[in-house]
UniProtKB/TrEMBL annotation:
Residues 321-517 form the Proteasome activator Blm10 middle HEAT repeats region domain. This is Proteasome activator Blm10 middle HEAT repeats region domain-containing protein. GO terms for biological process: proteasomal ubiquitin-independent protein catabolic process. InterPro entries: Blm10_mid, PSME4. GO terms for cellular component: cytosol; nucleus; spermatoproteasome complex. Pfam families: HEAT_PSME4_mid. Coiled coil: none annotated. GO terms for molecular function: peptidase activator activity; proteasome binding.
Length: 544
């Protein structure tokens, strides 16, 4: 970095300086006018002293102290430096973290800072930054497969494995185009299903192989290994220990390249494997596979894979997903309980949230260098309705689960964001029924927690479910008997319910508005007249 320093690329220039990403809330502070000067001076000091410490090879305390200063700068001011500085900081820290024989605690400190600098991947494209993969791989080998640690000659903290893996996940986006072929040359000879080394090879592939790249580079990326590894997965039936790593790799590939990989021939088998990995009891004898045979897939990656497969012409994955939830819906019934329950609930909770993230990415995300989802592969409103219809049955059953209603409430909240007209009416029906019954207080607790999650979808003035707002006052009135000091849990959920709705809807009497405003719709006029009852609600609530 001497040359970089001599060329002046590491210098700070206030004129024409475009910060990478500032913390917008700093502008709201009472001393915001002084922050620019403070940040500029601190950054100049950090850059000068960090360079000086590296040039004189003073890792301790020099580089360590000023790298911690840079970490606190990121926390206080965000990435308030130019793109050139951003790239040079990353390259410098990458050199530091991959130094051979670096003390573990120093390596961890540099790795944490590097992860922070690489966190916002949309700020730096692959053209702006490239990092060699082999130094990081050699560091990973030295730490994870150390030949001296078990002899007590070196000590690594327990957290070092996770930090290194997080660092590799942040860096692999910027590995050069040729890296995929180099990795395959390194690990493909280890792919032997009769040898334990297979586990190491597949886990390395899952961790290191880059999957985000422009479409013109796909022939040098995933297309080099996709068919081979997919055929390998399709051919194994005995659930080997490395299968989970392979599924995680495919899930990441599918999520990063929606519309660029043809999954159609494999979709039925993929959903069959997903059903098998849930390890559900089958038949009268309640047969369950023994534990050593159940290398269950990670639910988070399964959800990513299912979400990425949805959409496209004919939407074949949705048909399989509907069949999957039809076959497992009865296991969500409150009377069915077993060790499979937690995995099923996590699947139900995370799947709608993942689809919401995908819809946001396709329709609302700011444009960046990352390739967008092709138009023909994006989820349409019809696709979302079909998706919600396939999950609503399981979600309504899971509301009254013995493990609590929070998972179902989270699922219904996200489903209501996608298709409020399908999700809200059945939950409203159950809520009104629970408010009238006196013998089943647990149903009121469950339905109110679900309504709290769906509150924003209910009161928003969207075209999908405009009549939702008319239910606010009846729900508030109906919830008042829940303020009962004899049943603490019911009382608390009722307070939370009332607090949520009163935060979203101001309690103002607008009954005179229709005579003053001539452009109101019929529903809006009804809402204005109904708002006269807010006063009665407040009086009854205070009496309670």
């Amino acid at each position: 970095y001497h040359s970089a320093d001599r060329k002046g690329r590491f210098s700070f220039s206030p004129s024409g300086f475009i910060p990478q990403k500032e913390i917008v809330y700093n502008g709201l502070l009472p001393y915001a006018d002084r922050l620019d000067k403070e940040a500029t001076e601190l950054l100049a000091e950090i850059k000068a002293n960090l360079c000086r410490a590296v040039l004189v090879r003073e890792l301790w305390p020099g580089v360590s102290f000023w790298s911690r200063k840079l970490f606190s700068f990121l926390k206080l001011y965000g990435r308030r430096f130019s793109k050139e500085d951003h790239v040079l900081f990353i390259k410098l820290l990458y050199e530091l973290v991959t130094l051979p024989n670096l003390e573990p605690h120093m390596m961890q400190g540099y790795a944490r800072l590097l992860i922070q600098l690489l966190k916002k991947k949309e700020l730096l494209s692959r053209d702006d930054l490239q990092l060699p993969w082999r130094p990081l791989y050699e560091l990973y080998e030295r730490v994870l497969y150390s030949k001296t640690e078990h002899l007590g000659l070196i000590w690594f903290p327990n957290s070092v494995d996770n930090i290194l893996k997080a660092l590799i996940k942040s860096c692999r986006l910027y590995f050069p185009v040729s890296s995929t072929q180099e990795m395959l040359d390194e690990w493909r000879p280890l792919l032997c299903v009769f040898d334990v080394v297979m586990q190491k090879a597949v886990s390395n592939m899952e961790l290191f192989l880059p999957t985000i790249m422009p479409p013109e580079e796909h022939s040098q990326g995933f297309q080099l290994w996709f068919d081979e590894l997919m055929n390998l997965w399709m051919s194994v039936q005995n659930q080997p220990s490395w299968e989970g790593h392979l599924v995680n790799l495919f899930a990441r590939l599918a999520n990063d390249n929606i519309g660029y990989v043809d999954w159609t021939p494999y979709i039925p088998t993929i959903f069959t494997r997903i059903l098998r990995s849930l390890n559900l009891p089958v038949g009268v004898s309640q047969m369950v596979a023994p534990r050593y045979l159940t290398n269950s897939y990670d639910i988070g990656h399964l959800v990513l894979l299912i979400t990425a497969l949805l959409g496209g012409p004919g939407n074949p994955a949705q048909k399989e997903l509907t069949c999957l939830f039809n076959s497992i819906a009865s296991f969500y019934h409150p009377s069915n309980h077993g060790r499979w329950q937690s995995r099923l609930m996590r699947l139900l909770q995370r799947l709608p949230a993942s689809v919401v993230r995908r819809v946001h990415r396709e329709r609302h995300a700011a444009p960046s260098w990352i390739p967008p989802v092709p138009e023909q592969q994006r989820l349409t409103d019809a696709d979302l309705q079909e998706f919600s219809s396939s999950l609503i049955g399981a979600a309504l059953l899971a509301m009254f689960s013995k493990t609590g209603s929070m998972d179902a409430a989270y699922a219904l909240q996200n489903l209501a964001l996608l298709t409020p007209e399908l999700i809200i009416p059945p939950v409203l029906e159950k809520t009104y029924a629970a408010m009238e019954t006196l013998t089943e207080p647990h149903t009121l607790t469950a339905t109110l927690s679900c309504m709290i999650g769906m509150a924003r979808s209910l009161v928003s003035a969207s075209n999908h479910y405009p009549e939702g707002r008319t239910h606010v006052l009846p729900l508030l009135m109906g919830s008042l008997p829940g303020v009962d000091p004899n049943d603490f849990s019911k009382c608390m959920i009722t307070f939370q319910f009332i607090a949520t709705f009163t935060a979203l809807v101001p309690l103002v009497d607008c009954s005179s508005a229709p005579s003053q405003q001539g452009d109101l719709t019929e529903i809006e006029k009804d809402l204005c007249f109904a708002s006269a009852e807010f006063e009665d609600f407040v009086l009854q609530f205070l009496d309670r």
